[in-house]
Amino acid sequence: MLTQNTLTQARKLKLRWFVALSSLPLLGVVTAFGISSPQTDYSSVNLKTVVQEITLSLDTQDTGSAPANANTATFWRNVHVQRGDTVAELLRRMNVEDKAAAEYLGRNPAAASLHQLRVGKAVQAETDSDGGLLVLRFLSNSGDQMVIEKGPDGFNTRAMSAQLEQRLFVRTGEITSTLFAATDQAGLPDAAANQMVEIFGGDIDFHRDLRKGDKFTVIYEMTYSNGEPVRTGRIQAAEFINQGETFQVVHYQSDSNHSDYYTPDGKSVRKAFLRSPLEFSRVSSGFSLSRFHPVLGTWRAHKGVDYAAATGTKVKVTADGIVSFVGKQGGYGNVVMVNHQGRYTTVYGHLSRFASGLRRGQRLAQGEIIGYVGKTGLASGPHLHYEFKINGQQRDPLRVALPDAAPIVKVQLAAFQEATSGLIARLGLLRDVNLAKLD
Questions:
Q1: What percent of the chain has pLDDT over 70?
Q2: SS3 of 211, please?
């Protein structure tokens, strides 16, 4: 039986080794360990207990005083502007208790940008241990990095160019109702969703071709400043599975002046013409040789496509070209006509108004805004009448074969494949993974 004295000695021994082992990282003790083989016979080993006092040296000259920097500790806190916030409420949530800071932020014109922050904007504050404000940082609505800091003579405000960084994000989604509902569910920003529509617009008619169960994966950039997102960047790679057919694209910068989207084998996915001059709408009347005209009340050919959309919806030119007519013309009402590559012409009718400064002879780039949906001319309601002509003859823009843009030149193909292989592989890995809620 163990005596009380024996128990006390055992506890002391355990305590000494516990203290010694707990101090290893702090004191920099180096310990060597021996590893026995599985065949070691422990029965012949002589055991000997050694008890030794261990003295811990604490290099403290004055054990009765607190560390020299105890009162200089600072704290950073981050909050977001909420609806109805005042400066006082912001300071309260950041644990700032500083009358001088409150007066400066509340009354000084130099701090006016703080009062103008939109809901959701981040504000960071550095305070001392007593709640005194040392530094306040935030991005102004114009994108400048604002710094309000305490100096020898009080507070001052300065604006600096924001330090920007690029981050890569991935979103996947599945169509269950509409494209916008799916992109919202996936957390894909509207700007990236619009890019996706433009990129795949030559192969997929987003007005008619979407089906429940279609899937998409998008790898895109976001620009951040001081930890806060400031704008959506370019899509770097994307995949869309439409009715079982897979379309993949990657972005490639071939030189300092040119970049485009290509398939994994180097073919340009950008068609010479977009399928539709509107981002999102519905076809209200298709191409037909015999259609009942809702205004004239007669049967006649309808050699174009009507897209129903709200008045003021932006209308894009579907290909690079030169404006041949802009103005009013008969049943078209306000209309823009554009010539492309000598043999193609596109027509955009019933516009409510034209893009500012649009004129005959002006060169246009694909996707450029030329006007806005309306109901001028012979129109029963707001919509866009769109025609596609080849050598002066109207063709169905939803069915006509569209010419492709130029592919990667052979001398650059190896460099293209090396630069984009990683993104293409990532698309394949993410095909059946739902990352809608992961960053």
A1: 76
A2: coil
Contact predicate 139/154, CB 8 Å: no
262 and 411 fall within a common domain: yes
Q: pLDDT of 243-300, one tens digit each?
A: 999 999 999 987 777 788 999 999 988 777 887 888 655 454 444 444 444 544 544 4
Residue 46 contacts by C-beta under 8 Å, 6 or more apart in sequence? none
Residue 126 lies in a domain: yes
Largest CA distance in the chain: 116
Task: Please indicate, yes or no, if residue 176 is contained in any of the structural domains.
Answer: yes
What pTM does this model have?
A: 0.52
Residue type, 103: E
Beta bridge partners of 339: 322, 345
Cα gap 302→394, rounded to integer Å: 10
| Residue range 44-86, pLDDT digits in tens | 445 555 555 544 444 444 444 344 444 568 899 888 999 988 8
Q: Are residues 261 and 340 in the same domain?
A: no
Q: How far apart are CA 2 and CA 5, in angstroms?
A: 8
Q: CA-to-CA distance for 274 and 255, rounded, in angstroms?
A: 24
Integer angstrom CA distances of residue 358 from 142, 307, 338, 354, 419 = 29, 22, 12, 7, 39
Q: Is 385 exposed, middle or buried (0-12, 13-18, 19+ CB in 10 A)?
A: buried
End-to-end CA distance of the chain: 62
pLDDT tens for each residue of 372-425: 999 998 888 899 999 999 988 888 887 787 777 778 888 889 999 999 999 998
Q: Establish if 34 belongs to a structural domain.
A: no
Task: Give the domain-ending residue among 160, 180, 203.
Answer: 160
Is the domain of 375 the same as that of 334?
yes
